[in-house]
């Protein structure tokens, strides 16, 4: 489907999933398990949804995967482009059942296509900047996942670029794009060389998880309230910052995206 045929209103739609009562059992790779207050997580998620709505997003809240601990992290289940939603094979077996619900939900707005195992790919490893897709190569996404995504995206006019990732779960744990000309990153975790030509902002060393921000539009980004120094950096760099408390999700090795 050509980009010009996409209803522009669909770019302001968000699909989210309520936090699972089993969030404490989420997958962890680089962090040790810490007690998660599920009720607080639910309140934080509700505040997140309300903030999206304040910025004009039409939000659909799903709850069909509540028995799956990681189901709140819908970003990993798909790579949503203007033309198609690419269902990912996921990097760990425990999360693979999440994609059935997401395929149904996304199918209302996009054609869907599925990448099959043994390729490994999660949406948290795919950062879109314009028509470029930067694909993290770490614990959850491998070269096979990158090639499979490229086979789908490149004929649609996207370029696909691999990015080495070490020390964190996903590319977007350590690097996001506040706008199409800027990347906010932790260079200890993400190789900066593939981002040549873009303005690169380095998170403060005291806030290594501060690089995961959510673009809201019109120069505004959402940032975890826990990262005050990164907030100051973004404001100095010309962005409006909306702070959201996500303490319980940070314990689950997650961020706002």
Q: Using the alpha-carbon principal axes, give the shape.
A: globular
Distance linking N and C termini: 26 Å
Largest sheet: 3 strands, mixed
Low-pLDDT parts are 1-10
What structural class do you assign from the helix and strand content?
alpha/beta
Average pLDDT score: 94
Helix percent reads 10-25%
Question: What's the layout of helices and strands?
Answer:
Layout: E1 13-17, H1 38-54, E2 58-62, E3 78-80, E4 85-87, H2 98-106, E5 112-114, E6 126-129, E7 132-137, H3 143-153, E8 159-164, H4 171-174, E9 175-179, E10 182-185, E11 199-202, E12 214-217, E13 220-224, H5 228-236, E14 240-244, H6 247-250
Parallel strand pairs: 1-2, 4-5, 7-8, 10-11, 13-14
Antiparallel strand pairs: 3-4, 6-7, 9-10, 12-13
Q: What this model shows, in words?
A:
The protein is an alpha/beta fold and 257 residues long. Helices cover 21% and strands 24% of the residues. The protein is built from 6 helices and 14 strands. The chain has helices spanning 38-54, 98-106, 143-153, 171-174, 228-236, 247-250, and strands at residues 13-17, 58-62, 78-80, 85-87, 112-114, 126-129, 132-137, 159-164, 175-179, 182-185, 199-202, 214-217, 220-224, 240-244. The strands form 5 sheets. A 3-stranded mixed sheet has the order 3-4-5, with helices on one face. A 3-stranded mixed sheet has the order 6-7-8, with helices on one face. Helix 1 (38-54) links the parallel strand 1 (13-17) and strand 2. It is globular, with a radius of gyration of 17 Å. The model is unreliable at 1-10 (pLDDT under 50).
């Amino acid at each position: 489907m050509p980009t010009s045929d996409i209803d522009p209103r669909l770019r302001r739609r968000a699909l989210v999933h309520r936090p699972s009562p089993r969030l404490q059992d989420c997958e962890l790779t680089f962090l040790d398990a810490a007690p998660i207050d599920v009720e607080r997580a639910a309140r934080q998620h509700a505040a997140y949804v309300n903030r999206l709505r304040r910025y004009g997003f039409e939000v659909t809240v799903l709850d069909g995967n509540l028995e799956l601990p990681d189901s709140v992290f819908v970003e990993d289940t798909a790579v949503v482009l203007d033309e198609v939603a690419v269902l990912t094979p996921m990097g760990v077996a425990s999360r693979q059942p999440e994609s059935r619900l997401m395929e149904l939900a996304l199918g209302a707005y996009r054609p869907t296509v599925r990448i099959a195992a043994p390729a490994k790919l999660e949406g948290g490893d795919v950062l879109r900047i314009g028509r470029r897709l930067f694909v993290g190569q770490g614990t959850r996404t491998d070269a096979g996942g990158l090639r499979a995504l490229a086979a789908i995206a490149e004929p649609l006019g996207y370029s696909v670029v691999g990015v080495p990732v070490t020390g964190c779960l996903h590319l977007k744990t350590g690097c996001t794009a506040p706008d199409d000309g800027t990347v906010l990153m932790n260079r200890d975790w993400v190789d900066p060389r593939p981002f040549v030509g873009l303005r690169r902002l380095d998170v403060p060393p005291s806030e290594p998880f501060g690089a995961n921000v959510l673009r809201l539009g019109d120069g505004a980004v959402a940032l975890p309230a826990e990262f005050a120094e990164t907030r100051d950096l973004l404001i100095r760099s010309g962005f409006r910052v909306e702070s959201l408390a996500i303490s319980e999700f940070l314990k689950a090795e997650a961020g706002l995206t």
